[in-house]
Write a structure and sequence with these properties.
The structure holds 2 protein chains of 2 kinds.
Chain A: H1 3-25
Chain B: E1 3-11, H1 17-25, E2 29-33, E3 40-49, E4 52-58, H2 70-80, E5 90-96, H3 100-111, E6 117-122, H4 127-130, E7 132-134, H5 136-143, E8 146-149, H6 158-166, H7 184-193, H8 199-207, H9 217-224, H10 231-256, E9 257-259, H11 268-275, H12 280-321, H13 326-343, H14 346-361, H15 364-378, H16 386-391, H17 396-401, H18 409-418, H19 427-438, E10 443-444, E11 447-448, H20 449-475, H21 496-530, H22 534-538, H23 540-547, H24 555-569, H25 571-583, H26 590-598, H27 605-615, H28 624-629, H29 643-655, H30 660-670, H31 674-698
Parallel strand pairs in B: 1-4, 1-5, 5-6, 6-8
Antiparallel strand pairs in B: 2-3, 3-4, 7-9, 10-11
Helix pairs in contact in B: 3-10, 5-10, 12-13, 12-14, 12-20, 13-21, 13-27, 14-21, 18-20, 19-20, 19-29, 20-29, 21-27, 23-24, 24-25, 25-26, 26-27, 29-31, 30-31
The chains are: A mainly alpha, B alpha/beta.
Chain lengths: ~45, ~700
C-alpha cells in the first residue's frame, strides 16, 4: 500500500479517536427525548 | 406487524423482581439510565405470541408509593405520567410469598391508580417449606386482580404469568379499597376542585416530598396550592391511609392465607446466628474474601496467559501480513497491544463479579450490611454505606449512585467522598500486572503471596475509606437525622441464570466501556510516540548508527537502540521527560509517568498505555508482561519494575483519584464542584506522599 495512503489512514484514525475522547469528556451528554405531560392528560 | 405493549415490573426489594425480568426477557435486555438522572433503567423485550410483544421495564425496588429516595421517585413519576412513552399498559407487582402482607401495601396503592395490575407471587416453591397455603380464588376476588403463583427458581408459573399479561385487557382496573374514606370531607373538596382527575393521583402529588421532574409543573403547583391542611395534618392522613390499607390486607389474608408454623423447617435463624455473630460473622466474611482472591488468581491464570500470547501472535501476524507502513504499525503496535491490555483481564474481572453476584443472590450480602453497621456507625457511616463500598469493587460510579438510598445527607456525602478509595475493577489490571512483576510466586499456608498482596490492597482501600470517613465525620459540620433499616432476604441457592447474566452484563460493560476509551487513547499515544519534532527524531537512524559505529552491534540490537532513541525524542518522550523530575523520587521513569497521566481518563488505561509505549518500534513477539519485566531503570540500572518501585506504584494507584468519570459523577450527585475538587487534591496528594515514602524506604 502507498505510504501516503497509510499516513492518511493514520490521520483519519487519529481524528476519530480524538473526536471520541472530546465528545466523551468535554461535550455535554445528549439527553433522550421524552414526552412531557401536557394539558392534563397525565391525569395529575 | 406485531403489536407492542408496555409492562412495568414493580415490587419491594428482594422479591426476585429481576429474576422475573430475566425469565420474561432472557437475553433480550439492555441497561441504561433514566433521562436526566443516573438511576439504572433495565428494559427488555418479551415475545408473548406471534402478534404481541411486550416491552418490559424492571423498575427500582420500592416499599410503597411514598417515595423517600430518587430510585422510588422513578416508579411514581412513571405511574403518574400517562404521556410517558414507557407508561405501562399493565403493571406486574412482584411479591414474595413469605412477605405477602408487606408487599400488598404497594399493590393496593398501584391498584388505586386504576392501571390493570397483575399480582405475581414469587418464591412459590418455598410455600411447603414455610407451611404457607394460599386461597388464590379468594385473594383474586378480594384484591380484584389475577394472580400468578410463580417460582423463578423452579421455573414454574412463568407461562401462566405470560398468559395473564397477554389477556391484560380483561383485567379489572377497579381499586380494591377506597382510600378517600380516611377524610371524606377533604377528598370531597378535592374532587370538586379537580373534577376530571383521578383522586388517588391528586393525593399522591399533594403528599409527596419529591420533585416531579417529568410532569407538568403548572398543574402540580395548582394542586400543591390546594393545601387546606398543614404538612403535619397531611402526614397524619398518610399514616391513616397506611393503617387503613394494612387493615384491609389483614382482613384479606386472614382468610386467603394460612401459615402452619409447625410445618415450617426453618434454617434461616440458625444460619443468621452464625453469619451475623459478633466474632464468627467477621471471621467468616474474612475467610470468604480470602477464598475469592485466591480463586481469582488460581482460576484465571491459564486463560490470561492464552489471551496474552494470542494478542502477541496477532500483533506479529498483522505486521507480517499487511503491507509495511504507518497504518500497519498503528494496528500492530498501537491498537492491538492496547486492546490486549484490557482483554487480558476479562477472566479475573468475570471471576470477581461471579463471586459478588453469588454473595448477593444468596442473601449473604444483606447479612454483611447488618454485620458492618455496628462498625460503620463508629466512623460516621451507615450500614447502608457498605453497599456502595462493596459495589465500589466493581466501579465507583454506580457505587456513588447507590448512595441515594442513604437517608442522612451527612452519611451520604461522606460515603460519596470515601467510596473512590475502594479498589475498583479498573485498578485490578494495574494491580495484577505489577503484582505479577514484583511479588514472588511462593505461598504461605497454601495461599499465594500474590493473592495475599491483592487482598491486602483491597483491605488498604477499604481501610482508607473507613478512616477517611472517620476524619470527615469529625470535620464536616452538617446536622442530619440518621436511622438504619435493612431487610434480610431469605437464604437461597443462587440462580445460575441470574448469576450468569450479572457476570455477562458487568464484564461486558467494563470491557466495552473501558475498551472504547483505551482504544482511542492507544491510537493517540501511538501517534505521539511514533512522530516527533526536530533533528533528533527525524535523523534518529543516522545519529544512532554513527554513535554505535565502533561497537559492532547486531542489526537487532541497533534497531532497538534506534527505536529507543526515537521514542525518547518523540512527542510523548519529550512530554514524559518534562514531568520526570516530579515522579523520579517515586521510582518511576518518564514512560510510567505518561501511563499515569493518560490513566487519568480511566485507571485501566495504564496497562494499555505501557503496552503501547513498549510496543512502539518493537519487532519482537513478546507479551506485555515480558516487555515490562525487561525494562531497565535508566539511572540505577536493574529492572525498572522492582519491589520498591512496584510497591510505590501499587500504593499510588490505591490512593490516587485517577478517574475523570468518577469526578463528574460526584459533581452531579453533590451538585457542586467543591467536593470533586476536594477529592482530587486530597487523594492525589495522599497518593504521592505514600508512594514517595514507600519507595524511599524500600529502595
Amino acid at each position: 500500500m502507498n505510504p501516503f495512503i497509510q499516513k492518511v489512514l493514520v490521520g483519519i484514525t487519529l481524528i476519530l479517536a480524538l473526536w471520541f475522547l472530546v465528545s466523551k469528556y468535554f461535550l455535554p451528554e445528549k439527553k433522550k427525548n421524552n414526552k412531557d405531560c401536557g394539558s392534563g392528560s397525565c391525569g395529575c | 406487524m406485531s403489536k407492542q405493549i408496555n409492562i412495568a415490573l414493580i415490587g419491594n426489594p428482594n422479591t426476585g423482581k429481576t429474576s422475573v425480568f430475566n425469565a420474561l426477557t432472557g437475553l433480550n435486555q439492555q441497561v441504561g439510565n433514566y433521562p436526566g438522572i443516573t438511576v439504572e433503567k433495565k428494559e427488555g423485550i418479551c415475545k408473548l405470541d406471534r402478534n404481541l410483544k411486550a416491552h418490559v421495564i424492571d423498575l427500582p425496588g420500592t416499599y410503597s408509593l411514598n417515595a423517600s429516595s430518587l430510585d422510588e421517585n422513578v416508579v411514581i413519576e412513571l405511574l403518574l405520567n400517562k404521556n410517558d412513552k414507557d407508561f405501562p399498559d399493565v403493571v406486574v407487582v412482584v411479591s414474595d410469598v413469605e412477605n405477602l402482607k408487606r408487599n400488598l401495601l404497594l399493590f393496593t396503592q398501584i391498584k388505586d391508580l386504576e392501571i390493570p395490575t397483575i399480582l405475581a407471587i414469587n418464591m412459590a416453591d418455598r410455600m411447603d417449606y414455610k407451611g404457607i397455603s394460599l386461597d388464590i380464588p379468594y385473594l383474586e376476588t378480594q384484591l380484584k386482580t389475577k394472580i400468578a403463583l410463580i417460582s423463578t427458581r423452579k421455573k414454574t408459573g412463568i407461562d401462566d404469568l405470560k398468559a395473564l399479561i397477554q389477556n391484560y385487557k380483561e383485567m379489572s382496573s377497579e381499586p380494591c379499597l377506597n382510600a378517600s374514606e380516611i377524610d371524606k370531607d377533604y377528598f370531597d373538596r378535592l374532587r370538586v376542585a379537580f373534577p376530571n382527575q383521578l383522586l388517588y393521583k391528586l393525593w399522591l402529588v399533594i403528599t409527596q416530598d419529591v420533585n416531579f421532574g417529568k410532569t407538568n409543573r403548572k398543574e402540580i403547583d395548582a394542586i400543591t396550592s390546594f393545601k387546606t391542611k398543614s404538612a403535619g395534618d397531611l402526614k397524619r392522613l398518610q399514616q391513616k391511609e397506611t393503617i387503613k390499607r394494612y387493615q384491609f390486607i389483614n382482613n384479606v389474608l386472614k382468610v386467603g392465607q394460612t401459615v402452619d408454623a409447625s410445618q415450617a423447617k426453618d434454617l434461616r435463624s440458625k444460619l443468621d446466628r452464625i453469619l451475623t455473630h459478633k466474632i464468627f460473622g467477621y471471621l467468616i466474611f474474612f475467610l470468604i474474601l480470602l477464598v475469592i482472591f485466591q480463586a481469582i488468581y488460581d482460576w484465571s491464570s491459564v486463560p490470561m496467559d492464552l489471551i496474552d500470547t494470542a494478542f502477541a501472535h496477532l500483533s506479529e501476524w498483522t505486521k507480517n501480513a499487511l503491507p509495511a507502513g504507518d497504518f500497519t504499525n498503528l494496528l500492530a503496535e498501537g491498537i492491538i497491544p492496547g486492546l490486549g491490555g484490557i482483554v487480558i483481564f476479562i477472566p479475573q474481572i468475570a471471576f470477581l463479579f461471579l463471586f459478588i453476584a453469588i454473595l448477593e443472590e444468596s442473601g449473604y450480602m444483606s447479612r454483611v450490611v447488618f454485620l458492618m453497621d455496628k462498625i460503620m456507625r463508629r466512623f460516621g457511616l451507615s450500614g447502608k454505606s457498605i453497599v456502595p463500598l462493596i459495589s465500589g469493587t466493581a466501579c465507583a460510579i454506580p457505587a456513588i449512585m447507590a448512595t441515594r438510598n442513604i437517608e442522612s445527607w451527612k452519611e451520604r456525602l461522606i460515603t460519596i467522598l470515601v467510596t473512590p478509595f475502594t479498589t475498583c475493577a479498573a485498578r485490578l489490571p494495574v494491580y495484577l500486572i505489577i503484582i505479577s512483576l514484583v511479588i514472588p510466586e511462593g505461598s504461605f499456608i497454601g495461599i499465594s503471596y500474590q493473592a495475599l498482596t491483592l487482598m491486602l490492597l483491597y483491605l488498604i482501600g477499604f481501610g482508607s475509606a473507613v478512616f477517611s470517613a472517620y476524619l470527615l465525620n469529625k470535620v464536616l459540620n452538617i446536622n442530619s437525622k440518621t436511622f438504619f433499616v435493612v431487610e434480610m432476604p431469605n437464604y437461597k441457592l443462587p440462580l445460575l441464570k441470574n448469576v450468569g447474566l450479572t457476570v455477562l452484563e458487568k464484564t461486558k460493560s467494563f470491557v466495552v466501556g473501558a475498551g472504547k476509551i483505551i482504544l482511542a487513547i492507544s491510537i493517540v499515544l501511538w501517534v505521539l510516540a511514533s512522530y516527533g519534532p526536530g533533528e533528533n527524531f527525524n535523523n534518529a537512524e543516522e545519529i544512532v548508527t554513527e554513535k554505535y559505529a565502533t561497537q559492532n552491534l547486531t542489526e537487532e540490537a541497533l534497531n532497538k537502540k534506534i527505536a529507543s532513541h526515537k521514542l525518547e525524542h518523540s512527542f510523548i518522550g519529550i512530554s514524559g521527560r518534562a514531568i520526570e523530575p516530579a515522579i523520579r523520587p517515586l521510582g518511576y521513569d518518564w514512560k510510567i509517568g505518561i501511563a499515569i497521566v493518560s490513566s487519568f481518563a480511566a485507571r485501566e488505561v495504564f496497562v494499555g498505555t505501557l503496552a503501547t509505549i513498549y510496543s512502539v518500534g518493537s519487532d519482537d513477539e513478546e507479551t506485555i508482561k515480558n516487555r515490562m519485566a525487561g525494562e531497565v531503570n535508566p539511572i540505577l540500572g536493574g529492572p525498572l519494575f522492582n519491589f520498591a518501585s512496584g510497591i510505590s506504584l501499587l500504593l499510588f494507584y490505591a490512593f490516587a483519584m485517577q478517574c475523570m468519570s468518577t469526578l463528574a459523577i460526584v459533581k452531579r450527585e453533590t451538585n457542586s464542584w467543591k467536593w470533586p475538587a476536594y477529592q482530587l487534591v486530597v487523594m492525589t496528594a495522599l497518593a504521592y506522599i505514600v508512594a514517595l515514602a514507600s519507595y524511599q524506604l524500600l529502595k
